[in-house]
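Backbone shape codes:
***
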Amino acid sequence: MKKLHEGGQRRAATSVREPRVGIFWLVDGEPLVDGTPLRAAEDYGDFKTHPRSHLEAWSLLQQNGIAPPEVEYEEFPRGRVMYNPTTRRFTLLADRCILRDKNVVAKIMLEMNLPNRNTDKGTDAHYRCSACLRSRSDRRPLR
């Protein structure tokens, strides 16, 4: 799994990995993750979230040769993980192409060190890949 992380420090084998918030894509069947440890997350309304946008992170991933240079950030299925400190729950929002594949969701959750019990999963109109948008427009009647 390719990833771009802040603070990539090594941890002792006995330490507990901290949950992360962040953004991700599904590129060629594999998650591409840009995450932030929960303690370093930024406030966004009621949530703690990753400081970078998909556009900003995609540019960095392209500059580092991790993301394909000829593809725009919204072409691949994508999503985001946020944390609500009041409810103590994580929210994983993603394109349906990602949520349909339980193995991919499991990989993202493992990479972000998310607890199964305290993580809600769902879709959001904002996270729809170009293929899903095309298939929706194909179903609309012509006027």
